[in-house]
Amino acid sequence: METALVSSDTGAPVIAGSGLVKRFADFEAVRGIDFQVRRGEAFGFLGPNGAGKSSTMRMVSCMSPRSGGDLRVLGMDPDTHGPAIRARIGLVPQEDNLDRELTVRQNLHVYGRYFGLTRKQVRAKAVELIEFARLTDRADHDVEPLSGGMKRRLTIARALVNDPEVLLLDEPTTGLDPQARHLLWEKLFALKQRGVTLIITTHYMDEAEQLCDRLVVMDAGRIVAEGSPAELIARYVTREVLELRFSPGDQHGAVDSVRDLADRVEVLPDRLLLYTTDGDATAARAHDRGVRPTSTLVRRSTLEDVFLRLTGRTLVE
């Protein structure tokens, strides 16, 4: 696909929010956040349901006015330059909103006309985008019977019809199977390589680790951490995690025996998590103290460990 290259100059931020607020009546969904997105990077908003991710995305995409603070997108104010901003960005919403009575090709033709492309331009663009989305053999098929992964790829292809400088993706892989998710990651990585700035909201930690150069973790409308995935792991958790699994209930009797062996011990219904710099050595010391779990696993710490430490394990509805 011949997507226009974008300058890699990282001087002025492509998107900058300062004290950004979004209220719905008496509810404050976004509570004074500050963030900057650099040109050409993949930037993530992570958080549990209700954290304020989608509300932030809607403000950035000029779909919802801010309630307070300052916001600049491509150097412009969304409240006063919405059409000019929308002409230069692409949006992949959380729910696919394709016209399911049209074919794959027709969806792209219709959307391209919204941006003032001529019929000749939109036909050529549709061919490029269909190939990019790996939908060539379905180009003239109706959208309705397509798989979830195919519909998601078409939604992304449609968002690229105007050669956007910034692509906003709200929970891009929710509901997809692993194969479809990895194919989508491949496509997003290719876009980033071409210079497109990606802004992604997600609650999938492996997705954030795979795609994001930098990210913020949001909780209850606030930013609670910011950095690259590697920086956040180094800052908030240890290099490794030792998982000691027990029959449910038996883990409590081992807590006192291992508490001083790790930086932090977390008690779960069927296991203990010991956050440590050397999982194998910690496992050996626990064994020497008579701790006998049903199974032992040493793994590297992940962004999910950071996320759960910062936002907790309690379900937020």
TrEMBL record:
What Pfam families has UniProt attached to this entry? ABC_tran
Q: Does the entry feature the keyword Membrane, yes or no?
A: yes
- InterPro entries in alphabetical order: AAA+_ATPase (IPR003593), ABC_transporter-like_ATP-bd (IPR003439), ABC_transporter-like_CS (IPR017871), ABC_transporter_ATP-binding (IPR050763), P-loop_NTPase (IPR027417)
**Major subcellular location class:** membrane
Record keyword ATP-binding present: yes
Q: Which UniProt keywords apply?
A: Antibiotic resistance, ATP-binding, Cell membrane, Membrane, Nucleotide-binding, Translocase, Transport
Instruction: Give the signal sequence positions.
Output: none
Provide a Gene Ontology MF annotation, just one. Answer: ATP binding
Q: Name one GO cellular component term.
A: plasma membrane
Question: Can you give the residue ranges of the ABC transporter domain?
Answer: 15-245
Protein location: Cell membrane
Membrane topology designation: Peripheral membrane protein
Q: Which GO terms describe its biological process?
A: response to antibiotic
Record's family? Belongs to the ABC transporter superfamily.
The molecule here is called Lipooligosaccharide transport system ATP-binding protein
Q: Write down the species.
A: Actinokineospora cianjurensis
